[in-house]
Each structure stands twice: as structure tokens, then as C-alpha cells.
Design goal:
- The chain has a single domain, classed as Rossmann fold.
- The protein is built from eight helices and seven strands; from the N terminus they run ααβαββαβαβββααα.
- It has a seven-stranded mixed β-sheet with strand order 2-1-3-4-7-6-5, covered by helices on one side.
- Helix 4 links the parallel strand 3 and strand 4.
- Helix 3 packs across helix 8.
């Protein structure tokens, strides 16, 4: 736990000029229950390259999987989670993830259509006394380098619901972001995977870059 606190402290206290020279790594969460945690294999690497190119960030392009119950999650200040189906955390895994988030880590959960009914109960078990709240359109995560006046972009239609961003806050710090009915991760994938229009892919990448910028430059603070 001390390791991630040191990483987070460095990230959030360095001036931007020094921050630009710092190299760090993000990971994708591996979980149980049968859901395809490995979905969208090109998405996060593509997002990392986009953020590095467009925002001058220095994130390592290698994006490993990390198991939710492993102490190795504390090596990564930002972890992405996705999938279409079931999600199950054991008590030990849940405690490990909770400690990671309290210690300064950040989890972005992107519903890849079909995860919603499974992930919400797990989030509720993770923080039973902290509500999952919808972020308003004027939240700073939508007004980083790229501006999204109407909140999350809609990348894939599916059920036609409006895209929503939900969060868990601890001491005014956003520690968990859940993006729903948007399919950001699909928009980050190689163009050939979904054949999305260029403007959709660009919007998804820009929103993803905003999330990274918000977390790493502001520490997830309002």
C-alpha cells in the first residue's frame, strides 16, 4: 500500500513540467465470474498512445493484466476494467481492491454492454456506505483538454439509453468511475474491429484522454 501512495504523491505534487518527464503504467483488471475481462484488447494501448501524442503524457505503451486480488495492483495508479458479462469478486479480492482505491488508486469501469447488472452489485459490496452517484455535465472530467458539454459521448447505441458516468467519491476524490451506455472502450479499439466512423472513435479517445488527464493531473479531486 505504501508503494502506490508514493506513486500517487509524486504524480499529484510534481509541477506539470516535471510531470511530463515521469513515466508510469496503467493496467487492465482480470476478474472472476466468467465475464470477458480480456475484451477490447487494442483499446487501452490505443488510448495510451493517443494520450501520449495529444497531451504529452508519458504512459508506458505496454498494458498488462492484473488480477483483482493481487498485491501487484498497487503498482498501477490507474486500472481499467471492462467486459460483457458476469463479475464476481471474492471477499479477499474485494478487500484488496478497496484498499487499493483508498490508498490512492483509481478504477475505470467501462460497461461493454451486458456488464451492468453484475458490476453494480459488486460496487455496492465494495463500498456499502458510499453511493454510486451520477456525475453532472459540469464535472471537471468533462472539461479537461477536450470539452464535452453534454457529458459522455455515445459510441454504440445498443439499447438506445443515454450515456451516463457514475462515480464513487472518498474525501472528495473520485476513486471509481463507471461509464455506462457509452462503449468508450469499443471506440478506442482499432478501426477495423467495429468500423466506427472516425468522429466516433475520435470522441471516444478524447474522452478517454480526459479521464487519464483528470486522474493523473488532478488526483481525481473535484
Amino acid at each position: 500500500m505504501k508503494q502506490i501512495r508514493i506513486i500517487i504523491f509524486i504524480l499529484f505534487t510534481l509541477p506539470i513540467a516535471s510531470y511530463a518527464q515521469l513515466t508510469y503504467q496503467v493496467a487492465v483488471l482480470k476478474y472472476g465470474g466468467g465475464g470477458d475481462y480480456y475484451a477490447n484488447p487494442t483499446s487501452v494501448p490505443n488510448l495510451v498512445r493517443f494520450a501520449n501524442d495529444q497531451l504529452g503524457m508519458t504512459i508506458q505503451e505496454d498494458v498488462p493484466f492484473v488480477e483483482v486480488g493481487s498485491p501487484n495492483i498497487f503498482n498501477y495508479p490507474f486500472i481499467h476494467m471492462t467486459g460483457h458479462g458476469n463479475v464476481v469478486f471474492t471477499n479477499t479480492e474485494r478487500e484488496n481492491l478497496k484498499n487499493y482505491l483508498i490508498a490512492g488508486g483509481f478504477l475505470h469501469v467501462d460497461d461493454n454492454y451486458g456488464m451492468d447488472e453484475f458490476i453494480r452489485p459488486e460496487i455496492a459490496k465494495l463500498f456499502p456506505n458510499i453511493p454510486l452517484v451520477e456525475l453532472p455535465f459540469d464535472h471537471p472530467i468533462f472539461t479537461q483538454h477536450f470539452k464535452f458539454e453534454n457529458g459522455l459521448p455515445k459510441i454504440h447505441e445498443h439499447d438506445g439509453g443515454r450515456p451516463q458516468a457514475f462515480g464513487i467519491f472518498i474525501d472528495n476524490r473520485l476513486v471509481l468511475l463507471y461509464t455506462y451506455e457509452t462503449d468508450l472502450g469499443d471506440g478506442w479499439e482499432d478501426e477495423s474491429v467495429h468500423n466506427d466512423p472516425p468522429e466516433k472513435r475520435l470522441a471516444a479517445l478524447q474522452m478517454g484522454a480526459n479521464i487519464l488527464q483528470f486522474v493523473f493531473l488532478k488526483g481525481g479531486l473535484e
